[in-house]
User: Fold this.
Amino acid sequence: MKRFFLAAGTLILAVCLAGGTAFAGMLQVNGSTTVLPVAQKVAEAYMKEFPDVKISISGGGSGNGIKALVDGTTDIAMSSRFIKDKEVKMAVDNGRYPVPFGIAYDCIVPVVHPSNTVANLTAEQLKGIYMGAIRNWSEVGGPDKSIVVVSRDTSSGTYEVWEEKILNKEKVTPAALLQASSGAVHQAVAGNKYAVGYLGVGYLSGQVKAITVNGVTGNADTARTGLYPVSRVLYMFTNNWPAGDALNFLNYMMNPAKGQKLVLEEGFVPLY
Assistant:
């Protein structure tokens, strides 16, 4: 069903107003810190091309973005996970109808400090680490040092995908250091030789070391095919079918020569 929404949204937006004229106005975009750098880069390019349109973008997590859409305080909600049934119900009860558009693919990649010798972890080992059952790196082939678990907070779509695909809906250990953004996770792992965290591929850098999962590397091919165990679609949601500036911006985001080119430049996986 999620793949259907991705394909349908892409197809229809490509047909509607492709290359059309923007309507002068203001767009509010709110939500996922994973999607945030993509949205910012595309918005900067869009506003250069359409200077009469101003786009304001803020993070805060997927849950907060969807809540803002439900409350009517944002035009577009960024989310690194699909909307929940209870969120749809709240929206409908509030007279709003969220419409999803897949804008990119992503992998959630476990990361450690570059000095860590561990190169691969199984999904079961990651589950054990994040539930607190595995506490020392020596238990998974690393140094005899305690593991510092770094996780996103519960308002994060990245956390919820990790919770579903790695923890199988179990809760993360209370000892985990919870971070409010992907940037904060990156900083925490880069600054601690014995930390482990998880990031979308767009946040990977030489300051952290990406770990394979079950021997599979998170990259464009494994994300698109779903071969990588923690692959996902990144979304933008609107209230009802978008019109005006919102529709034109989403068209721009999905244009292979414009927004999708910038998705790739930010290190994420374009739709095409």
Observations:
- The CA atoms of residues 109 and 198 lie 5 Å apart.
